[in-house]
Amino acid sequence: MTSKKPESFDPLDISNARANPPTVEVAEKVISTIPVRRPNRNEFIRVNPDPEYILDCAVVAFDHPTDGKQYYYLHERLRHLLPDDARPVRLFVAINRHAGLVLWPCTLPSGDGPGRAWHTSALAAADEAMRSWIKIVGKKELGYYVHYKATADLGVPSWPDMSLQELVRIAFKDRVITGPDHEVVRTINGEL
To answer: Dihedral angle at the C-alpha atoms of 176, 179, 180, 182, nearest 10 degrees?
Structure first.
């Protein structure tokens, strides 16, 4: 009886990989978090140009002791709770080159106050981002934002198949001011 010599196995033999390609399971991306913020200065973004994905609303920018600056959604009928802190914004749905979504709150200008140039330049950048990939950079010495267009063709953004309502619910899921007893209202009013 002759014993068979076991075949040697070479895990780095690439011919095996080519002959029997592994099966790839496809998974669907689930969006469970969407930051509410201005795009970072080195982040090229596009803004969804569909008017159905643009919302004028009110937010409160609150400096949370542990989480830093957070935006809270404030329904119009509750603006009287924080008249000096409610900020009217135009909320844009933006996407970066890595398909990361952002809800971008651009403050709506009112009057000729000191922040008007910041607000109008941010809105102009968002408008341009509806047509081109841009990045936005704050220029303190000038008192407004400057935006830069990408010089390369970065392709067409792939927007998720979700409504603005769904995106807003995800972005503000635990940051909605619901009434006078809300922690943010009580903190701003000096009750906590």
So the answer is: -40
Q: How confident is the prediction for the chain on average, in pLDDT?
A: 89
Q: Tell me the per-residue pLDDT of 62-109, one tens digit each, with 9 for 90 and over.
A: 998 888 899 999 999 999 999 999 999 999 999 999 999 999 999 999
Q: Which of 92, 109, 110 is nearest to 35 (CA)?
A: 92
CA distance 135 to 23: 39
Whether 6 is in a domain gets the answer no
Q: What is the model's pLDDT at position 154? A: 94
Distance CA 125, CA 131 (A): 10
Range of the domain at 152: 34-188
The span from the CA of 107 to the CA of 94, in Å, is: 15
Instruction: For residues 166-179, give the mean pLDDT.
Output: 95
- 47 inside domain: yes
Domain count, the chain: 1
In the block, tokens 């592994």 appear at 22
**Token pair of 4 as six digits:** 């068979």
The DSSP code for 20 is S
Contact 131, 20 (CB under 8 A): no
Please give the angle made by the CA atoms of 36, 159 and 124, to the nearest 5 degrees: 55
**pLDDT confidence of residue 78:** 93
CB 120 within 8 A of CB 143: no
